[in-house]
Amino acid sequence: TAVSGDFKVADLSLAAFGRKEIQLAEHEMPGLMAIRSEYAAARPLAGARITGSLHMTVQTAVLIETLVALGADVRWASCNIFSTQDHAAAAVAVGPEGSPQQPRGVPVFAWKGETLEEYWWCTEQALTWPDAPGPNMILDDGGDATLLVHKGVEFEKAGSAPDPSTADNDEYRLILELLNRSLAQSPGKWTALASEIRGVTEETTTGVHRLYEMHQAGTLLFPAINVNDAVTKSKFDNKYGCRHSLIDGINRATDTLIGGKVAVVCGYGDVGKGCAESLRGQGARVIVTEIDPICALQAAMDGYQVTTLEDVVGTADIFITTTGNKDIVLAEHMEAMKHQAIVGNIGHFDNEIDIAGLSKLPGIVKTEIKPQVHEWRFADGHTIIVLSEGRLLNLGNATGHPSFVMSNSFANQTIAQIELFTKTEQYPVGVYVLPKQLDEKVARLHLDALGVKLTKLRPEQASYIGVPVEGPYKSDHYRY
Ligand code: NAI
């Protein structure tokens, strides 16, 4: 039963369970909680109206409540149709002091299994403030909230939005339908909304690509902080997070023994490195595909066979895409796979695996085994198993990354929100990364919990290697 007030979640009665898991997560998120207590009195986000578009999980609940503790007004949507944990969404909507009868939390618009149309409705709701033209900050993951604002402004400038029937895919058609409606109903809405926005902080590789592209094209409307490229984000969440949650997703979806199988990982960036390691840890023989000679060489030196997908498509058992690129596993690849091969994507968008092409093959039949697990039977009778319809399987089939690693990512997010909101004039329109000192601070906040004892740099040593005793310890071009 979907419930709505100024929010929409699947089932408010799940709030108590969500609250318990949030409490467990708080202990596992020392970075975020330390920032919460550091700034609780100063409330640097007082006056901030933050629209968040990021997987509505238990960990995100702790992020949302941190932003609120720092003074912000928050509205939230998930950034994927399958990634919401309904108990987390319910707990956030109810709030720590509310009840299912009297919800007093944050307006959340998210449930697991949205349609694409509902997804864009939710994004619009998160951007629509009851008593203001809109948010003054965006916290984005993959850039969909930012995209909607930019498209809205672009079409208002042009005087109209393109005819939805001209869209080259279903999702863009839905965006055009939404914007055509809103241009007719509230002319000027997106331009007014965008003019209030001080900036966006972006969580992931794919969203960051979009921001740099817009900045290069001169169309970026407000400054952005690239949270992804904080070292304590991409070198931890993308790698160690996926190392945990990839096999969690495969196991929950299929319960197939991974040991002894041949697994292909397409892409050996941060996500691919974590995925390959976890599959190998389970005893799979892992094969990597890459287009970048540096990453291909890294994979080879890490002990993986590196070859093309075409070479191994008929013999491998598990195929995982991690590229952030499109058209990696095509319909013809899937047709050539072994009986009951498993195919899944952990990159941000669903265009890495050509599900549309698969569904058009003559004689193909799709059967739901359970939500987010589908068997596709080819005309010759053999089948493959596709996870989360090609959307990120660690959030679709499992619960995404665990709290401790997300504490690093979300500590960066919170610091980035404070930075852009309180020092707006220091950030002309552009895309920025956080200063290294803040990156080191985020890492530092997580050491005690793991019993890490740091060696103290002595002043003579510091001057010998030319760094301050208190850091930063590396130059900006150092790669970790
Ligand atoms: P990255 O840029 O470090 O790695 C991507 C790799 O794929 C690169 O090395 C690139 O050379 C390679 N690649 C590109 N086209 C290819 C092709 N046709 N065949 C083989 N390899 C190809 O990016 P990162 O940080 O690893 O992120 C990858 C994707 O995962 C992005 O979409 C990102 O947003 C997403 N992501 C998902 C997470 C999740 O929890 N599901 C967490 C973090 C990131």
From TrEMBL:
EC class name: hydrolase
Q: Where in the cell is it found?
A: Cytoplasm
UniProt keywords, alphabetically: Cytoplasm, Hydrolase, NAD, One-carbon metabolism
The record places domain S-adenosyl-L-homocysteine hydrolase NAD binding at 238-400
Q: What is its main location?
A: cytoplasm
- Give the GO terms filed under biological process for this record: L-homocysteine biosynthetic process; one-carbon metabolic process; S-adenosylmethionine cycle
Q: Span of the secretion signal?
A: none
Give the EC number(s) listed in the UniProt record.
Answer: 3.13.2.1
Which InterPro entries does the UniProt record give?
Adenosylhomocyst_ase-like_sf (IPR042172), Adenosylhomocysteinase-like (IPR000043), Ado_hCys_hydrolase_NAD-bd (IPR015878), NAD(P)-bd_dom_sf (IPR036291), S-Ado-L-homoCys_hydrolase_CS (IPR020082)
Requisite cofactors: NAD(+)
- For this protein, what does the record note about how its cofactor is bound? Binds 1 NAD(+) per subunit.
Protein name according to UniProt: Adenosylhomocysteinase
Q: Which organism is it from?
A: Wenjunlia tyrosinilytica
Q: Print the organism lineage.
A: Bacteria, Bacillati, Actinomycetota, Actinomycetes, Kitasatosporales
